[in-house]
Amino acid sequence: MRSTLDLVAAIGLAIGGAFGLAGTFVASDVLRETVWTIDGVGIVVATALLTMKYQRLGNDLVAAGFLTFLAGESLLLAGNAAGLQASVPSYAGGVALWAAGLVMVSAQATFALWIRLTASVAAVLFAVSVLMILWGAPLLPTSAPLPALGYPFLVLTFIGWIWTLLKPER
Q1: How many CB atoms lie within 10 A of CB 129?
Q2: What local confidence, expressed as pLDDT, does residue 2 receive?
Q3: Looking at residue 169, what is its pLDDT?
């Protein structure tokens, strides 16, 4: 029997992935901030539940990775209403924590290899984006190619986590 909390986490990840990616393409500042707020709340709820799940299973590194990702998403959420330019400092901190969390979650063979690979690619792209911001590059959360190139890999990782949560148990 699948846990209701697994289903809630899967829904939170789906909302986060869909609304997060959509927010990158929205032209209106108010609509983007609204969509990204919905995205952030979904991800925070999902990663809080995943932290508890993997802690209970005794997988402390994965649990700590989800907790680190949650902290990063909280920073992003906090800077969201400030607008793109003003949110860059909290964005850089949040995405740095995303990268660290993704590496921690993927460091062990808890998830399928393809999920760990997409998470690793996202983590590298986000870490490079953070370094570029810290070194003075004028990057916004919507800038291309970085950090925008990392978002599809993050969403693929979310899909993998959802698949893991919802796949039939053997």
Answers
A1: 26
A2: 67
A3: 73
Cβ neighbours around 4 below 10 Å, total: 8
What are the distances in angstroms from CA 123 to CA 7, 28, 81?
Answer: 25, 28, 25
What's the predicted TM-score (pTM) here?
0.95
Tell me the residue length of the chain. Answer: 170
Burial class (CB in 10 A: 0-12, 13-18, 19+), 5: middle
Give mean pLDDT in consecutive 10-residue pieces for the chain, a chain of 170 residues. Answer: 88 97 91 96 98 97 98 96 94 98 97 98 98 97 95 98 88
Distance CA 146, CA 94 (A): 15
Question: 30, 23 in Cβ contact below 8 A?
Answer: no
DSSP string, 58-124: T-HHHHHHHHHHHHHHHHHHHHGGG-TTTTHHHHHHHHHHHHHHHHHHHSSTTS-HHHHHHHHHHHH
